[in-house]
Amino acid sequence: MTEKKTSKQMLNELVAQHYADAGKAKAEGKLVAWATSICPQELLEAMDIYVVYPENHAAAVAARKQSMDFLERSESCGYSIDICSYARVNLGYKDIMESDACNIPAPDLVFCCNNICTTVAKWYENLATELDIPFILFDTPFNHRYEAADHTIAYMRGQLEHVIGQLEEITGKEFDYDKLSEVMRISNETAYWWRKACFTARANPSPLNGFDMFNYMALVVCIRGKKEGRDLFRLWYEELEERAKKGLGPWKEGEEKYRIIWDGIACWVHLSPTYKILKKYGVNVVTSLYPDAWTIFYETNDIEGMARAYSYYHANRCVDYVSDTMLGLAADFNIDGVVFHSNRSCKLMDFTVYEQQRRLEEKAGIPSVVFDGDMCDPRVLSQAQYETRIQALVEMMERRKAAKEGR
Amino acid sequence: MYLGIDIGSSSSKAAILDDKGALIAHAAVNEGTGTKGVERALELVFDEAGVEVDTVKFTVVTGYGRITYEHADKQITEISCHAKGVSYLCESAGSIIDIGGQDAKVIKIGANGIVENFVMNEKCAAGTGRFLEVMARVLGCDLSDLSHLAGQSTKEVPISSVCTVFAESEVISRLASGEKRSDVAKGAHRAIAKRVSGMCGRVGLKDCVFMTGGVALNSNMVKTMGETLGREIKAAPYPQEVGAIGAAVFAKELYEKA
Amino acid sequence: MLKETIMKLEERALNPAKAVASIKAECGKDAVGCFPIYTPEEIVYAAGFVPVGLWGGRTEIKMADKFLQGFCCSIMRANMELGMRGVYDQLKAIIIPGLCDTLKCVIENWKTAVPQVPMIGMVYPQARWNRAAEEYLEAELKRVRSDFEKATHTLITDKNVEEAFAVYEEYRAAMREFTEVACDYPLIIDARTRHLLIKAGYFMDKKLYMEEIKKVIDGLKAMEKEAFHGVKVITTGLIGEPAEILDLFRECEISVAADDIAQESRQFRTPARKEGSVWEKMAGRVIDQRGCAFLAEQKKSRGQMLIDMVKEREAQAVIVCMMKFCDPEEFDYPVYKAQLEKAGIPVLYLELDQQIESFEQIRTRIQSFAEMLI
User: Fold this and answer.
1) Res C163 pLDDT > 80
2) Residue B237: CB partners within 8 Å, gap ≥ 6?
3) CA–CA separation, C342 vs A46, rounded Å?
4) DSSP type of residue C265
5) Which domain holds residue C107?
6) pLDDT band at A223 (very low <50, low <70, confident <90, very high)
7) Predicted pLDDT of residue B126
8) Do residues C3 and C193 make contact, with C-beta atoms less than 8 angstroms apart?
9) Residue A352 to chain C, least CA–CA distance (Å)
10) Are residue B72 and residue B133 in the same domain, yes or no?
11) What whole-number distance in Å separates Cα of residue A273 and Cα of residue C7?
């Protein structure tokens, strides 16, 4: 019997596997789709289309400090430096198709769900136009109220039915509903274990280091519908649960002094310094809105439930909902403060940050800071400025703790 | 005689062509619009040419100060004038990279120095001469020494910030962490070259590329620009005065057409 | 007579606050604010209000910083600022369509920032090639009617909407005629006047505005076409402002032969379908709109549309009025730029925001472009 692998080993292997398989699929003549990170990939997988995720790829490229070449390429085509850097990296990559970091094969179709933002629809429209390939858009109208209206649900259901027709046309095959049920079931299970693992961080100290969560997140995006993914997240959960039982904190050295929520996407391109500066002050990211992002739960074969689930991704919901969720997390995870990433790439997340910040303060007295950064563009973050913000947050958290303990 | 004047944001230039179109004088003064720089440049250029002001048949003014300058027969933009001037000095010129104090421009030139296409930097000062001025200040040297300093670099220090303000603090912290001044200086040149090379991509470069503007006097900048673009880049002859020369060429053309 | 009408309309467009204040006296109606890009103004008109366009304006941003970062589009920052300052308090309601990520956030922030002005947020469908999108939009328009009735304590019958829609169709036809006729009079209707005449319609009862614009059309038609030796261009982008850039157009002898500007022709270039209920027709206009950055397409048609416009109007070039930080417009640009360049059509890119103080660099760009083309 071989020695049991850790979830981290499995993670790295599976990520490498994912990219290798994509290349292989393409070489074997299988169809490849480029898709947005939280889309009903179930439909594609059911039709045996290999799905890769440009956002994920861009993050991987940025994390290995390779994003500049692609950013410069797309900027020289006329893309403004002010638009999403995932898009800029990918639109540059579309032309170059070669990175030392990792590679994805050229797409035969693009599949976009705009529940994460309107921007992805613009980006994918460009890909479809310039590559002259089919553009499948699953449009999930923004929920300005708590619940989706009936006509919104009907629209989304109608689209999914239409998408199935489009996929049949593209693949020349009849839609495989059995396979869909199977993928739906596994996706639900993966989501279950992902969430359960992330929620071990409720323990005090948290066995989970939030930056690990960012790493594992890469995988929940790309192999949500596969058994290997589900097994990995179950294993990860077991490891974390074990650590929690032993009372182990997030790091080998140093104690978890402050527990925070990280709001927004990680600075992939400055992952290490943004992490180290937090750790230096004993600040652990115990959660974010992401643990729930892939908890797309619905009954197997319930297309309407699936539509609703995708539409309820937090970036597609009103400020009231997000604020309530964040306050819920803050209570649940015993949060001391929040770091908001004012991400030059993501206007949708940024332009409600100030309001979220005020609500946290008013309703729960939770201090927070906002820092300027970007997920893939290395030119935005100023490390010195970031550290100053984190220090300021630490001072506020310390004051609040002292007041609570009557010091 | 035909007179060309270029009133920039931080310098004033003038040039004179004789009736046959030969360049007989040119001068640059490091005082820009709103100063007495123009008068000084004119004085220099008339002295050099040894001609009287009243022999001038036609005057064209260019540069940021062109709108408010009242003594010219016509005002034409520095983009058209740079293209005209470079083409006058070197017939085979295909493209121009002009890095001035506030603006950077990339110009594609057609036959007889006409502008085929151009791009300018956006509002941000990254990629302009202003960026180098800030860097020189932080590195504690004169702007004119920056090129020499960068030339001594053995290990380039990348500067990632686009924003001039952020870049300044980035450079300060790089120096504080023990990086060599020369390596940081080279990094600053690279940062500009990268910004400008993005603009080159937008407009497309033709063969035979010249750099103009005061920054082209910085030989390391020309070199770094060439390295970044992966092609040969030359400084134009009289890079600072080329706009004024182009204006003088226009003056002759316009006078003869009228 | 023509000159007077033009001046009257220009005056309107240049003084939106004054214009809105005079609406009540003019026609006895209250005003309702309509955000960019598209709103179902017919519903507002059917309820007996005058829809007014809220497209930002020059203002010092002090309060909007409480909600929006500096890298937010200047129109939305201005609207937020004006709302928070109470400038919109006289409006009976406002409608905001969530057509981009920034607009979605503005809808959300408005609820807290400007609670005194009732706001109706709405969401247009993007997968427009799908029949379900039309049904959704009809239902969404009816939902807006219902919320609007609640907010303004009115009753809006289908018949009211039909009448309003007919007025708007007539208005849109008049505007299409105006832009076509104006093309032959590039001196009287220079870039700035053209923009202001169109804009004036956003601060008047459409019926009254139509009388005026028809006077302009008739006045022009009675004159001989103007000889023009400058450069004819097609403009494209969100908005052709600040108006100072249009003064520079005139100075450099550039005239606008036709536009693909969201605040101008995109509002009226798509006629309604002949068949169907008024709701189907209203939805159909949005479904049928082509080449707009705010409405997705399976393949982008904007580049070819611009090429066709250049040919049809015998223009020489395209000028891009790029509102800084406008994602949808910024995403479209590289694609149509490449297509235009391939077709040999020169493109001038102007990066603009509403709070620009200095026009020197823009002047250099515009003048160089004109020098290049003449």
Assistant:
1) yes
2) B89, B90
3) 40
4) G
5) 27-159
6) confident
7) 65
8) no
9) 6
10) no
11) 60
Is C76 inside a domain boundary? yes
Which residues in chain B (79-138) have CB-CB distances under 8 A to chain C? 79-80, 102-103, 114-120, 122-123
Report which of C235, C253, C258, C254 is spatially closest to residue C313, judged by C-alpha positions.
Answer: C258
pLDDT tens string C168-194: 999 999 999 999 999 999 999 999 999
What are A52-80's pLDDT values in tens digits? 999 999 999 999 999 999 999 999 999 99
Are the Cβ atoms of B169 and A75 closer than 8 angstroms?
A: no
CA B139 and chain centroid, separation? 23
Strand order in the sheet with A135-138: A50-52, A32-35, A109-113, A135-138
Phi–psi pair at B207, nearest 5 degrees: -70, 160
Residue C49 near residue C34 (C-beta atoms within 8 A): no
A302: pLDDT confidence band, cut at 50, 70 and 90?
Answer: confident
Closest residue of A to C121, CA-based? A144
Beta-carbon contacts below 8 Å between B and C? 36
The CATH number linked to B77 is 3.30.420.40
Q: For A39-58, b where at least 16 C-beta lie within 10 A, e where not — what string?
A: bbbbbbbbbebbbbbbbbbb
Among chain B residues, CA nearest to C364: B77
Q: B165, B166, B194: which to substitute to probe chain A, counting the most A Cβ within 10 Å?
A: B166
Domains of chain A: 1-175+253-407 (3.40.50.11900)
Domain count, chain C: 1
Distances (CA, A) of B212 to A329, B231, C308, C331: 58, 16, 38, 32
Cβ within 8 Å of B, A 380-399? 380, 382-385
Contact of C106 with chain A, judged by CB distance below 8 Å, is answered with yes
Kindly state whether A75 is in contact with chain B, defined as any CB-CB distance less than 8 angstroms.
Answer: yes
B106 and B191 assigned to the same domain: yes
What is the pLDDT at residue B143? Answer: 84
Looking at residue A268, the DSSP 8-state letter turns out to be: G
> Distance from B198 to chain A by nearest Cα, in Å?
4
Chain A hits for B230, Cβ within 8 Å? none
The one-letter amino acid code at C358 reads: S
CB atoms within 10 A of CB C214: 15
In this complex, the residue of A72, A78, A382 whose CB is nearest that of residue B166 is A382
The span from the CA of A219 to the CA of C32, in Å, is 49
- Nearest chain C residue to B120 by CA: give it: C365
pLDDT for residue A218: 81
Distances (CA, A) of A215 to A189, A294, B68, C373: 19, 14, 59, 54
CA gap A9, B184 in Å, rounded: 39
* Nearest-by-Cβ selection for A76 from B166, B173, B201: B201
- Which of A320, A191, A332 is closest to A259 using CA atoms? A332
Q: Residues of chain C whose C-beta is under 8 A from some C-beta in B?
A: 346, 349, 351, 360-361, 363-365, 367-368, 371-372
Looking at the structure of chain B, the number of domains it has is 2
CA B104, distance to chain mean position in Å, is 8
Are residues B105 and B230 part of one domain? yes
